[in-house]
C-alpha cells in the first residue's frame, strides 16, 4: 500500500468492506481494513478494526481525536464498556487503553476533529430516541460541531429522499440493509465518501440504516475561511438539504 492512501477528497470513493480481508495490526489479536490512511501507523485514518476475544491495545494518545462506532460485540477501555450500537468521540489529547473481552468490530476515524472540538461523547444508540426526519425517514443526531454533523438515519421500506448537494462532502457507512442512489446499490458494510458539492438522489427498496457524516470534507481554503472569517456558514448559501 502506498501512502497517503485514499486521501484525495476531490474523488468519490465506494468500498464494500465485506469483500476485503482484514490485515494484521502492530498488536496481536487486532486486525483492520484501512479505508483511508495518511501514514502506516499515524496521521489521519479511517478503518474497520476487529478485536479478537481477550485482545488488548496498548495505551495511546489521540492527537487529533478518535471517533468510533461499535458495529459488533463489545468494546471497552478503563472508562467503560461499549456494546454494539455505541457511538464514541474521544477528543484531541485524550488517551486510553482499549480491549475487548468478547471480541468486537469497529468503524474508527482517527485525527479528524475540527479545531476547538474538545467534547467527549458516548451515545448508546440502542437506547436513544429516534426523531422524525424528512418524509418517512427517522434521524438520530449524534454529534455537531462547526460545519460537521454526524447522525444515524433509518429508512423504511420504499423510502426516498430529495435530490441534494453535499456542502462539505458526505460520508456514509451502511449499517443495515441496502442503500441506493442513481449511481449504484450499497449493501451492509459499504463505505461511501462523496466530495464537497457532489450530489445524489438516494432511496431504498427495503429498510436500511446508515451512519452519516456531513460537512467535514471542505477544501482547506474554504475551511479556513469559515473558521477564521470573513462571514460564516450562512453566508455561503443554502446549498444543502439535510436528512
List keywords for this structure.
single chain; 243 residues; mainly beta; Jelly Rolls; 2 domains; 8-stranded antiparallel beta sheet; 7-stranded antiparallel beta sheet; 1 helix; disordered C terminus
Task: Describe this structure as you would to a colleague.
It is globular, with a radius of gyration of 18 Å. The longest helix is centred in the last third of the chain and has 9 residues, at 220-228. The strands form 5 sheets. Strands 2, 3, 4, 6, 7, 8, 10 and 11 form an 8-stranded antiparallel beta sheet that branches. A 7-stranded antiparallel beta sheet has the order 1-19-16-21-14-13-12, with no helix packed on it. Strands 5-9 form a two-stranded antiparallel ribbon. The N and C termini lie far apart (35 Å). With 243 residues, it is mainly beta. It has one helix at 220-228, and strands at residues 13-16, 23-24, 30-37, 45-51, 60-62, 66-77, 80-83, 86-90, 94-96, 104-110, 121-124, 131-132, 138-145, 148-155, 164-166, 170-177, 179-181, 184-186, 190-194, 198-200, 208-214. The chain has 1 helix and 21 strands.
Amino acid at each position: 500500500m502506498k501512502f497517503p492512501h485514499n486521501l484525495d477528497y476531490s474523488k468519490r470513493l465506494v468500498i464494500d468492506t465485506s469483500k476485503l480481508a482484514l490485515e494484521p495490526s502492530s498488536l496481536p489479536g487486532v486486525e483492520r481494513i484501512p479505508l483511508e490512511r495518511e501514514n502506516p501507523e499515524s496521521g489521519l485514518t479511517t478503518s474497520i478494526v476487529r478485536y479478537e476475544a481477550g485482545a488488548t491495545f496498548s495505551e495511546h494518545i489521540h492527537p487529533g481525536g478518535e471517533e468510533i462506532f461499535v458495529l459488533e460485540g463489545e468494546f471497552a477501555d478503563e472508562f467503560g464498556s461499549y456494546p454494539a450500537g455505541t457511538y464514541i468521540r474521544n477528543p484531541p489529547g485524550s488517551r486510553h487503553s482499549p480491549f475487548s473481552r468478547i471480541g468486537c468490530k469497529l468503524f474508527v476515524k482517527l485525527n479528524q476533529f475540527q479545531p476547538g472540538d474538545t467534547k467527549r461523547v458516548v451515545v448508546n444508540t440502542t437506547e436513544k430516541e429516534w426523531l422524525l426526519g424528512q418524509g418517512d425517514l427517522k434521524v438520530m443526531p449524534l454529534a455537531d460541531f462547526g460545519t460537521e454533523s454526524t447522525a444515524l438515519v433509518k429508512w423504511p421500506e420504499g423510502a426516498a429522499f430529495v435530490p441534494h448537494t453535499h456542502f462539505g462532502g458526505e460520508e456514509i457507512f451502511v449499517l443495515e440493509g441496502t442503500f441506493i442512489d442513481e449511481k449504484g446499490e450499497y449493501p451492509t458494510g459499504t463505505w461511501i465518501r462523496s466530495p464537497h458539492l457532489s450530489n445524489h438522489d438516494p432511496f431504498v427498496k427495503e429498510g436500511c440504516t446508515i451512519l452519516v457524516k456531513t460537512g467535514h470534507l471542505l477544501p482547506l481554503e474554504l475551511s479556513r475561511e469559515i473558521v477564521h472569517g470573513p462571514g460564516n456558514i450562512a453566508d455561503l448559501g443554502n446549498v444543502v438539504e439535510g436528512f
